[in-house]
Amino acid sequence: MTKILIILIFALCVESVGVVFLSKGLKQIGEVQSISAREIGRIIAKGAANPSVLLGVALEAVFFGVLLYLLSQRDVSLIWPLTALGFLVTAFAAKFILKEEVSAVRWAGILLIVIGASLVSYSEKAKSKPPVPATSQSETGVK
After folding, report:
1. How many helices (H) and strands (E) does the chain have?
2. How far is 93 from 134, CA to CA, in rounded Å?
3. pLDDT per residue over 56-72, tens digit each?
4. pLDDT tens digits for range 104-122
5. What's the CA gap between 33 and 140, in Å, rounded?
6. pLDDT at 77 (0 to 100)
7. Rg of the chain over CA atoms, in angstroms?
8. How wide is the angle at C-alpha 55 spanned by C-alphas 54 and 58, nearest 5°?
9. What are the domain boundaries of the chain?
10. For the whole model, what pTM was predicted?
């Protein structure tokens, strides 16, 4: 379980930095002025040429690859809720990289999410182990 948590924490850090770069790049591009094919094309073209957006997308792709690995190793009911810990990492990244103000109410909400993720993690430890099958006498060599 420790190996999975270390990999997950790495992935969440990558994802959080990716989200921060996506946000930074999208703010550089500017707001969508209208919902039209021309405006959507403009946003896509600017996004495809913006280094922050491209780096953010690349980091999100790395996160997704690691998530696929984690889901292949453990139950989705364990891994997916633990990805909620990314809210904590992302809040710190937004505060220190983007210089966003994170209110006490947001920190309280994030704390509740972390508590929930901790309960999910604890449930994995508390999960009952399947019984070890008894060996037959012929397998042990005892008669």
Report:
1. 7, 0
2. 52
3. 999 999 999 999 999 99
4. 999 999 999 989 888 887 7
5. 76
6. 84
7. 22
8. 85
9. 2-126
10. 0.74
